[in-house]
Specification:
The structure holds two protein chains of two kinds. By secondary structure, chain A is an alpha+beta fold. Chain A has a single domain, classed as Alpha-Beta Complex (tRNA-splicing ligase RtcB), CATH 3.90.1860.10. Chain A has 15 helices and 19 strands. Chain A is globular, with a radius of gyration of 21 Å. The two termini of chain A are 33 Å apart. The relative contact order of chain A is 0.18. By secondary structure, chain B is an alpha+beta fold. Chain B contains three helices and eight strands, in the order ββαβαββαβββ. In chain B, the strands form two sheets. In chain B, strands 1, 2, 6, 7 and 8 form a five-stranded antiparallel β-sheet that branches. In chain B, helix 1 runs parallel beside helix 2. The longest helix of chain B has 19 residues. Classes of the chains: A alpha+beta, B alpha+beta. At the A-B interface, helix 7, helix 9, helix 12 and helix 14 of A face strand 1, helix 2 and strand 6 of B.
Amino acid sequence: MDLSLLKQQSRFEWHIPPFGKMRVPGVIYANEMLIRGMDMKVYEQVTNVATLPGIVRASYAMPDAHWGYGFPIGGVAAFDPDVGGVVSAGGVGFDISCGVRLLRTGLTVADLQPVKEELAEILFHRIPAGVGSTGKLHLDRSEMDAMLAGGARWAVAKGYGVPIDLEFIEEQGCMAGAKPECVSDHAKTRQQDEMGTLGSGNHYLEVQQVVNVFATEAASVFDLHEGDIVVSIHCGSRGLGHQIGTEFLRTMAISAAGHKIELRDRELACAPINSEVGQEYLGAMRAGINCALANRQIITHLVRQAFADTLPQASLSLLYDVSHNTCKVEEHALDRNLARLFVHRKGATRAFGPGHPDIPPSFRTVGQPVLIGGTMGTASYVLAGTRESMSLAFGSACHGAGRSMSRHQATRQWHGREVVRELAARGILIRSPSFRGVAEEAPGAYKDVSEVVEAAERAKLARKVARLEPLICVKG
Amino acid sequence: MTPNWEHFPHEADMGVRGIGPTKEAAFEGAALALTAVITDPAEVLPTQQVTMACQAPDDELLLVDWLNALVYEMATRKMLFGRFEVHFNDHSLHATAWGEPLEVTRHRPAVEVKGATYTDLLVKQGEKGYWIAQCVVDV
């Protein structure tokens, strides 16, 4: 991206003053090098989002922003329903509530080392991953609707996990306002065999080690210590979410003209929040969030079983579960008042700061955990939300490293077998049904996650708490 | 005649493009390109057939609908498709897809397609008369 198009506010904050039909400025949080590496499409998408009706304050991009669908991935935008604000299926995306959860295990590397290969194999065989994989749980329509209404709460009631897990999931594990009746039969059929599956692409399950602690007080509150073994699960709402995204993107793209909404990009497909289609989408999208939360809860249960069979001394407890692709109703300070806004985070993580009532009481002194996934060869991070983030980006931060090259290019540059071998030589065991899939996800295909996280911290969106490095990675 | 297809780059996902002397051939090519995101189309045996119908206000939305119909059938039937026959009637499409049940060890599927998007969406006839049908698919 050409820096001359931006007005620099600080080393880590850059503005695009409104021009043309933009209703608000664009704001990009990143360092100069990250911005230079961003495609011009990010600029185009940030400015396009800024033209949508009812947008408030700014169209934001996080340090990991890259070319997305309508919204940039790493895009944040909030809308006020009282001034004709919209909800956008494109602003949530195809993988509704894709997210990450982190589990503590109570183990150290010394405990893991003797059974690392065995654990890798058990996780690979027990957690369904990849194209065509199916879960053991097959829901009839009535159970499907119960799951869509209840989310992780439904899963716990069915025996997948324990009640205390729910305290450490956004929305306490159940998104209010879900309307299973707004989810199509096609979407439910697509989900029938996919409960408790990881998916493919950039989804993964990793066993990791805490290698650095940066903020000792926050780490202590999160009960994370150097040398701890933890488990990260990254996946979303599977076929149901994808089908909801597909269907409503189409409906909104076609109905936009009728609502007098000019779409510069069909992917920005949206509808007024207070319209019939807007409300239907919200009902379906919230059901999709519940599907993702239930899915990660079921996978957690499978992971606990795998550990119990390999390392019986392990005790897996949930640190937190965050979602990336959502539209949530939140109260934010706006012009000295509290406004009820519909906040879209597309490939961005909620990062509520200390004192926020929506985060678990035990975390309120330090802020909510923000889980940033890296690549299978580098690192992931745990951050904590800041008070400043609430006014900087409606309490949001980045979600990952962001790709630096296409999948196409990655498969020309790397062979999956070699990637697996090189990582094994470094002590990282990769298990995947597809070598081509591994090549597409090669560490070199991603930006430097440490640089992204550093920029997020310097921009005051979130602060570093711990760095995690992978030991076992199961990919779909 | 085997439809022509290719992939084109997108940062996070994959562009699929069908090229052909007719719009039908271009749509068939785009479907092959979709399969090729997952596996080598030549490895998919045409042992079973599935018929599909779509209708949309314009050709570009119709392309997305066509590819999304295939994504849905692949996901719910656990199949892959390697041969296609498309027929148009105004803005509606009737098609037959031939394929077989997915076998992970033989097909080694690389990635699942979540859906076809409106990004880089184009259906047009070029100067030399050849048709292009393309879009980016989310994986």
